[in-house]
């Protein structure tokens, strides 16, 4: 009889036990990925080098810059303004002779990728 009475008194307290501090389904995590270059190619079209690049990810509008090199010798720089509507850029450089060309792409002060075209041994 005492056990039955004890169960009746403790029933409301035991029925209210649940995990309040741990969510049963965790919230969805939205990763904050930095800007990245997903597609980049450096090709020759006659006497012109053509660099095409696409920037993906979440980024503030800014300039995508390229620095051109033939081996270790710098050839020049260029930049294109990108925003959410314009994520692709095309750069050209006149290069009549074959060489070991490199294009270093940077965005927001950070180097993102280097693309190479070796027509001769570096």
From TrEMBL:
Keyword Signal tagged: yes
Signal peptide, first to last residue: 1-18
Source domain of life: Bacteria
Stated name of the protein: Ig-like domain-containing protein
Keywords carried by this UniProt record: Signal
């Amino acid at each position: 009889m005492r056990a039955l009475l004890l169960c009746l008194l403790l029933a409301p307290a035991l029925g209210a036990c649940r995990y309040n501090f741990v969510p049963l389904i965790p919230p969805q995590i939205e990763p904050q990925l930095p800007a990245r270059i997903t597609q980049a190619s450096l090709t020759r079209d006659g006497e012109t080098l053509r660099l095409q690049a696409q920037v993906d990810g979440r980024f503030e509008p800014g300039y995508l810059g390229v620095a051109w090199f033939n081996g270790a010798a710098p050839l020049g720089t260029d930049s294109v303004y990108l925003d959410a509507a314009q994520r692709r850029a095309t750069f050209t450089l006149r290069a009549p002779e074959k060489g070991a060309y490199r294009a270093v792409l940077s965005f927001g002060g950070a180097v993102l990728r280097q693309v190479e075209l070796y027509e001769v041994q570096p």
